[in-house]
Specification:
- A twelve-stranded mixed sheet has the order 3-4-2-1-5-12-11-6-7-10-8-9, sandwiched between helices.
- It has helices at 17-26, 38-48, 91-107, 120-125, 133-139, 171-174, 177-193, 220-234, 251-254, 265-275, 311-332; strands spanning 6-9, 32-36, 54-56, 70-74, 112-115, 149-153, 158-161, 201-205, 238-243, 259-262, 281-285, 291-294.
- By secondary structure, it is α/β, with parallel strands linked by helices.
């Protein structure tokens, strides 16, 4: 199906989601449909000095790609959003918007979803039981070995943590040879399918400083990670490592691989956010629908001030559209 819109979920309505969505639309990205309260979008547009004619539609199938209007699928907030002050009363609408967007994407009437940042503490107060977006989205998808993969990507770097939102002291027990093999196999497949890389190269981080220094700083690198890499290489996956993380992210090193599999969250997210804080994209791989997100939080400290940058959302929208186009081309072939 051509001309299917990308759905932008509202995220935390007290944050910067509506602002950056409007700025992305103003930049010329018109193949989008917002899920939000139209009055909230209209008020935000007026405050930003953005002239936007809103067109309310009931579902993505009614999206008109020939129209210059900003399409909005309406929802109603239980509590009027106040910039910088989240209200748990709105949490059910935040969650339902994500769930419905996934359903529409799975059905084929939407090209994919781009999720604005959620305020997890607010959702927890309303009974949300998932650590974050990634895990919740995975629960809505068909199970795939190694999924979900939380990739952070920018023009200079792509990274995936093998473990996601868990305490650092739980990481050594959470990694296993089987886990690393599954994550790398799925990453290999997604680099080919989503990014069009025919022979992807994956660099695998060690867990310990200096990748364990031959077992002198921990034995996980030799006992868990290395056997996984050896098995992957035997299967034809171009995987190398375990690499010391402190020498893996400089300019010359980044020329030697297409993506990095790290062992834990901050090991790989810190380098990416240092390289491109404003342009990074969070993408969930291994789902049966396309999902990307800006790589930043809700921006409660700057909400309502009109100064939020839309770079990351714009990059997320472009990446989602590229994924959708690649998928459509593969089906055509």
């Amino acid at each position: 199906m051509k001309n299917r819109p990308l759905l932008i979920t509202p995220g935390e309505p007290a944050g910067i989601g509506a602002e950056i969505a409007l700025k992305a639309w103003q930049s010329g990205i018109t193949d989008i449909c917002l899920i939000d309260q139209p009055a909230h979008i209209a008020q935000m547009a007026a405050s930003l000095g953005i002239t936007a004619k809103l067109r309310e539609i009931s579902d993505p199938a009614s999206f008109d790609s020939s129209s210059q209007d900003l399409h909005v699928i309406p929802i109603s907030w239980k509590a009027a959003p106040v910039a910088g002050t989240p209200d748990p009363a709105n949490a059910p609408q935040v969650i339902d918007a994500i769930r419905q967007a996934a359903i529409w994407s799975q059905s084929g009437i939407a090209a994919g979803i781009v999720t604005n940042p959620i305020q997890k503490s607010c959702l927890y107060d309303a009974g949300f039981t998932y650590p974050g977006h990634t895990e919740f989205l995975a629960s809505l998808s068909k199970p795939v070995a190694g999924a979900p993969l939380m990739m952070l990507a920018c023009d200079e770097l792509r990274v995936v943590p093998a473990t996601i939102h868990i305490a650092l002291n739980k990481v050594p027990a959470a990694i296993s040879t089987a886990l690393i093999i599954e994550k790398c196999q799925l990453l290999h497949a997604c680099l080919k399918a989503n990014f069009g890389i025919n022979n992807p190269r994956i660099a695998v981080c060690g867990l310990n400083p200096h990748a364990g220094e031959n077992g002198n700083m921990g034995d996980e690198d030799q006992q868990i990670i290395l056997p996984a890499i050896t098995k992957l290489q035997a299967e034809g996956v171009i995987a190398t490592g375990p690499h010391p993380a402190d020498t893996l992210f400089h300019t010359e090193a980044r020329k030697t691989y297409d993506a990095v599999l790290g062992m834990y969250h901050d090991q790989v997210l810190i380098p990416l956010k240092t390289i491109d804080f404003f342009g990074g994209v969070n993408v969930t791989l291994g789902l049966d629908f396309i999902r990307t997100s800006p790589d930043h939080g809700t921006g409660l400290d700057i909400a309502g001030r009109g100064i939020a940058r839309a770079d990351s959302l714009i990059a997320a929208l472009r990446m989602a559209r590229n994924f959708a186009d690649n998928s459509q081309n593969q089906k055509a072939n």
